[in-house]
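Lab notes, practical 5.
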Amino acid sequence: MKTIYDFIQPSAPYTTEKGYLEFQFEESDAIKSNAYYFNHPEWAKEYLDYCHRDICFKDRWQQASGTWTDKIVVDIGCGPGNIHATLQGNPEILIGVDVAPTSLKLAAEQGYIPVLADAHKLPFISGFADMVVLNAALHHCENMKSVLKEAARLVKPGGILITDHDPQYSAWNYKGLAKLLWNLRLYIYKWIGHSFHKEQAQQEWALKSEIHHKPGDGVTTDLFFDVLYACGFDVAVFPHNHTEGKSIFKGKMGKASLQYIVGNILSGRNPLAAESALTLMCVARKKMRLSPN
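Output from the prediction step:
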């Protein structure tokens, strides 16, 4: 039976003395922000308890991924282990990659083999995973294209790569009054007690960790097709507003919250258009072999 050690690059030294596989990497500002936020014990636990645990999320991901049982799965940006905590199953090997030790320890309690590593340069061999998943992960990384290519590298022929919950560029490209309101949102949130963030520092560090979650930034359909098609994948992208389950695969986006509907209207966009959906779920399967040029 194979173990994670069969999939580590021979040239990638690591230590295990802290209870997880730790690989050396250079800490960018983005990594430092994510490590600080997701290494906070209370904040990481709240993220595990409250984020990506709803029935629509579970329905959508179960349809996209199928069973995890007996699969070799890599969860990049696993945080405290939300996806597997929600979907369950019995993978043959379940690897969780993150930059925050506290989150990795929580992920280990959910069945993950915890790995401290940089998603831009993963310490694994190519083509070994049945499934690679990135949920709400790309927009936390400095170079989304680079991380997506690294994720694709790990997938074996016939395997699947899934991403979800990254902000769609065209929906978050607020303009005019919408952008002004966006810039004022933190004061409004503080006044109404919005979100599960209990303290100002928690909210501030959460926002610092979301590198590409701001007006004029985010993922695009072209990003997924350009990167993954070149890596030998069949690619499908499904816009949605977090409020639909497997029905997104039949073209339903679900309804956005009022604030996002208003933001798109004020930015001159149709709030019901696919370009106004809050996020894109990408489901890509690696071809068994590449077609000749």
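Observations recorded by the TA: The chain has a mean pLDDT of 93. The radius of gyration is 19 Å.
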